[in-house]
Amino acid sequence: MMKRIGILGSTGSIGKQALEVIARHPAQFSAEVLTARSNYTVLIEQALRFRPSSVVITDESCREAVQSALAGTGIEVRSGSSCLGEVVSGDNVDMVLTAMVGFAGLMPTICAIKAGKQIALANKETLVVAGDLVTQLARENSVQILPVDSEHSAIFQCLAGERNADVEKIWITASGGPFRAFSADKLAKATHTDALKHPTWNMGAKITIDSATLMNKGLEAIEAKWLFGLEPDQIDVVVHPQSVVHSLVLFLDGSIKAQLGLPDMRLPIQYALSYPDRLPGSFPRFSFTEFPALTFESPDLLRFPNLTIAMEVMRKGGNLACIMNAANEVAVDAFLNDRTGFSGMTRIIEKTLEKATFIENAGLIDYIESDFEARSLALSFV
Ligand code: NAD
Ligand code: MG
Fold it and tell me: Around Cβ 56, how many Cβ atoms within 10 Å?
């Protein structure tokens, strides 16, 4: 049966690779909704090729350009962030791929879940900010949240046919990022140009910086807690520079399952879109002889304190992950714009966590307010 996909953030790294997957399987998938923030040139190209029923450009100043390029095609053009949730909740959409960056992905994802759409989740910040609320809404609406993040796709695949109660712990693998071998001194001088050279994955700017600070692994630990219903003590991170073992699960009897493959996001994207089926893929195959050694080491928490911060935040709960996420978004943006250095990002996050209002049992409004408060605080610390 044809699955009609709405893509939130179709012009980004995940969005583009998802469209490649859709193009390779025209009998299985169609792209019904495409959305972007401001990259209207790519959005127009995608719309002319994939013929969705609607496109959204959230930056209002780009609407005119999209409207005139798509005139006469019958494709509905909308603008502004407020319509994102509505366009992916229509009857013409079966599944929503959340591939926007940051907190901005939360509201449209909630709308899609309330409308009963299956979710292929790339936007990990949604679960970091409001994992309790989002997973509860998903249960209430019989919506399955299928992981796109490669580590979570790996764990999901390892858990197939298993009982969650039989899981002792999981390891999320980390490439270690571009600064794995940097000394503390060298790290202090690292620039965003250095950080954007990721050794194994080619991704959007925000997640690439998060990978360089290891905050990405902290976000992924929190994402895993909510996706798989785990306790913080059951979640560990191991550095594996080859990025071939995508994550592992240890079961109560001592048996370990791992999922392996070449680092290629099209694989987890395709699995989330096609689940529970597996579709043929002509992606390059892994060769054991080309990778005679797969290595593992502990993350260095002294050089990469953001991972420790995130693990603590996960343990303490409440709205702390929401606060941390907002501060991190501000810090990464500041780093990308030369307004803070590498360790400045950690300072901004720590100070914001210290000052922002703690809420033990937060609801949606609390999360929105916490995000706002934390962003203002973080900006004042840049
Ligand atoms: P990206 O920056 O390449 O693309 C982001 C997309 O979202 C673009 O289409 C952009 O126009 C849109 N967008 C961004 N901010 C927006 C806003 N405020 N309002 C409306 N649209 C907005 O990002 P990416 O690397 O594709 O990552 C997307 C998400 O997937 C992130 O949450 C990231 O953590 C996660 N993820 C990415 C990868 C990867 O390989 N890139 C892997 C795992 C998880
Ligand atoms: Mg990942």
Answer: 29
**Cβ(39) – ligand 1 distance below 6 Å:** yes
CA distance 210 to 141: 32
CA of 4 to the centre of ligand 1 (A): 20
230 burial class (0-12, 13-18, 19+ CB within 10 angstroms)?
A: middle
Helix, strand, coil percentages (3-state) for the chain, rounded to 5, are 50, 15, 35
C-beta separation of 326 from 374 below 8 A: yes
Are 70 and 44 a contacting pair, CB within 8 Å?
A: yes
The pLDDT of residue 197 is 84
Could you tell me if 162 and 300 lie in one domain?
yes
Q: What is the pLDDT of residues 122-151, one digit of tens each?
A: 999 999 999 999 999 999 999 999 999 999
- For residue 202, give the ligand nearest its CA: 1
End-of-domain residue from the set 125, 147, 169: 147
Q: Does residue 137 sit within a domain?
A: yes
pLDDT band at 64 (very low <50, low <70, confident <90, very high): very high
Phi/psi of residue 317, nearest 5 degrees: 75, -145
Same structural domain, 106 and 16: yes
The pLDDT tens digits of the residues spanning 326-366 come to 999 999 999 999 999 999 999 999 999 999 999 999 999 99
Assess whether 185 and 286 both reside in one domain. Answer: yes
**DSSP, res 179:** T
Letter for the amino acid at 133? Answer: L
Ligand 1 and 108: CB distance under 6 A = no
**271 in a structural domain:** no
The dihedral sign for the CA sequence 279, 280, 283, 288: positive
Ligand 2 centroid–CA 110 distance in Å is: 22
Task: Please tell me the number of the ligand nearest to residue 205's CA.
Answer: 1
Question: Which domain covers residue 176, as residue numbers?
Answer: 152-264+280-308
